[in-house]
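#structure-requests
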Amino acid sequence: MSNNHATFIWSIADLLRGSFKKHQYGDIILPFTVLRRLDAVLAPTKQAVFAAVEQATKDGIPVRASLLRNKAGHEYSFWNESRFDLKTALGDSENLAANLLDYVTGFSDNVKDIFDKYKIADRIAELDEHDLLFLITQRFAAVDLSPATVPNEEMGHIFEELIRKFAEDSNETAGEHFTPRDVIELMVDILLAPESETLAKPNVVRSVYDPTAGTGGMLSVADDHITSANPSATLTLAGQEINPQSYAICKADMTVKGQSVDAIFFGDTLINDGHAGKTFNYCLSNPPFGVDWKKQQKAVTEEHQVRGYAGRFGPGLPRVSDGSMLFLLHLISKMRSAEDGGGRAAIVLNGSPLFTGGAGSGESNIRKWVLERDLLDAIIALPTDMFYNTGIATYIWVLSTKKTAERAGNVQLIDGSKLFRKMRKGLGSKRNELSPEDIAQIVRLYEGEADAARSKTFDTTDFFYRTITVERPLRLNWALTPERLAVAAEAKPLAKVDLQPVVERAKRDETPTTDLPSFRKRVTALLAESGISLTAPQMKALLSALSERDENAPIVLDAKKRPEPDPSLRDIENVPWNEDVHDYFDREVKPFAPDAWIDESKTKEGCEIPFTRHFYQYVPPRSLEEIDADLEAVLGRIRARLETVKA
């Protein structure tokens, strides 16, 4: 039934051919579908609402929103104050554009917002200009989308089918605001997996949140799964979206299903959190991959510095070129605390948040903070070519504020990269999809099914490490030669000093010395003879330029008689968290560099999750005999063909 309705509505788009480009069809068909649905939903109470408006106007008092909501029916959170509906607007065809505008602006603010974001006034004007407004409105008025004929769930499927069709037909990056259904199904199944018993209880109350709601796919699937498992469940769907059209589609999709849209906000989640101070049972997100956060930098940095851990970004800030970890931190701030019953979250990220940034970097500090608080439950590697606008490797991070006793202190890594089926026809970059069997297999692995090749469990501290700085002593010799003085002349502090008189006195074949004090005296005397006076920084620059590294020279000591480190020999070592730094140093460094030492002041703590390394399987190279046999076979074929040519 829903497919027939979707096909019929889709066919209305044929009227637009020639006057509009194909990628513009959705901007007209989708808001008109919403308008027709709301028209049909409010039809039984339309007169009662308008009568209340007229009475209030007659009495000269403002119309109370609560009164109109009651008149429209308790099950709906919206109403329309206009005297028009689609049928009466069509009845006065001469003024159809004005009538429709009056009708659309008569909706309560929570629904009017949808039409504003669709720029419905512009769409009506364009249709009127092309003499298509009457035809389009007439065709939509003829579609019966009343709840009695098309229940909410079915209406949702019709609208989702239309969104999908228009997304496929648009050559723009539809995937930017449209997460594939199979990925969402997996995320929702994983989120709900440990809670099947709790969710089955009568009249259970749950909330679902998506800070990057797009067209509302994640909220929609979560709603479907929870209500199909337990029709008595009460759900609050909350979200925020930055793209006006996607925001309109999300609200429209929920509205046509009869869901409340009061908790769906428009705007930038990072700058202006529409749900500040609120937490949720389930959080889902597919933030943009590898997108910079320069626009949000001022507000985010200020929140980090001023509010610290009382805000969302206390643990640290990632590099400005990729803001995905900011969404990770934001999502964590929205998870219900363990004291309030616990919250679970799933977020899709690319590979970068797993390992980008060394010890002490913002990314590393964020990872460490997440693991120290035991919030990371699992990471699932998805196949490549899963999304509409990118083919890169992606991962689902599963988070929980209240892990079960068996999972506490651990992180499960699941390699689902080989669990997929090829699509018969690709959509953009999406060529692979998860079949229901693949999703079920990954959920079973998450729930504990043994498969060493695909599922591994680690202690949270297995991903921590310390970075130590290994120093080697500086060993130098000095010589006053023309070549070294030429290097000195290039030094910035000596740029304005004329060293030519010194160069003329220098010997080309001078034997280098390792006695710095006596060499300094000789240089000072030579400078005085040449009439050159140097400041302390200039003298330091000159002596540095006249030196060269010499591994057989004595160690250079500083003013406190401590060995000076040689920056060119400096090395960094990552020491596993559970190993003593000095034991590691004595075993791995000392045998090869007996004069080395650790600069304790530079030791940093880091955290990375080298996912692919844990699932890497060594494939030995082919034997030389095999390769020789292949080459011989190829050469044999070439010889045979040459013989044929000669013959």
